[in-house]
Amino acid sequence: MKTPSAQAERHPAEPRRSKSPANRSLERGVEILRAFRPGSELLGNGELAERTGLSRATVSRLTQTLVGTGFLQHDRARRGYRLGAPVLSLAHAMQAASPVLQVAAPWMRSVAMELRINVGLAVPDRDEMVYLESVRYNRKASLRSVVAGQRVPVELTSLGQAWLAVAPPAQRATLMALFAQRRGAQWPALRQQIDAAADSVRRHGWCVASWQPEVVALAAPLVWHQHPVHVLNMSVSSPADPASVAQQLQAPLRELAARIVDALA
User: Which pTM was predicted?
Assistant: First the structure.
């Protein structure tokens, strides 16, 4: 089964394309940039066409423009393209300009260091959650390294399930239909987990999930009127069951979430 990040086709969770020709060109250019992920650093026109659903002729025109602007680099010897440095510059500018990160990041680092846990902050992007910040201070070596910019599936993670609990109903319904199609026979059990997570968020303000072996994470949505919904999480690498980990982390998670929301509200 393909993971969400490996999907090449467009899906219903993606934004509707504008009918304006100028906007369509911009949207198509953005789709080209979106096609690049860790593990697919060099892509040719054929691969870009497959991943974006655009024609090869359209992809060829767009890649030439993106090379001209510096957002793509052309590797002639390998007949492919890779992202250019301006993409990293934009990411840095986004991080520096985020009022949520300016407030949350110092507190996240302090709590992570004090409790020797992992603390992350993420936002939704289509059917994935994107980390804006990830502070790793777990006592045990984690099975994976998580950094800012990394993506994880919405439907499997505490981050995504916490966000689904407060997502706009129409967007949630669209994503749930996508997940049902993607997960097949696994969907009924996963749907129960997502519903249970939503109930936990309504009752307690957080939910818990363990989608990787011996990694347990709690997450709480941060909801304001003036900012998009962000999701804060805390995780540990532990063989303990999720319920016992939740007992240890729920108080610091709720306290840190409240501090961030109050500071920005």
Answer: 0.88
Q: Which residues pair with 231 in a beta bridge?
A: 122, 221
Strand partners, 130: 123, 151
Tell me the C-alpha distance between 149 and 154, whole Å: 15
Looking at residue 156, the DSSP 8-state letter turns out to be: T
On whether the CB atoms of residues 158 and 255 are closer than 8 A, the answer is: no
pLDDT digits (tens, 9 = 90+) for 159-178: 999 999 999 999 999 999 99
Nearest residue to 102 via CA among 131, 68, 74, 133: 133
User: 178 CB contacts (<8 Å, ≥6 apart)?
Assistant: 11, 12, 13, 127
For residues 131 and 147, give the distance between their C-alpha atoms in angstroms, rounded to a whole number. Answer: 7
Question: Residue written as tokens 């957080």?
Answer: 206
What are 169's two structure tokens? 């109903």
Helix H or strand E segment including 110: helix 99-115
Token pair of 183, please?
């997960």
Residues 6+ apart with CB under 8 A from 235: 117, 118, 120, 138, 158, 215, 216, 217, 218
Strand partners, 136: 118
Kindly state the tokens that stand for 29.
């250019």
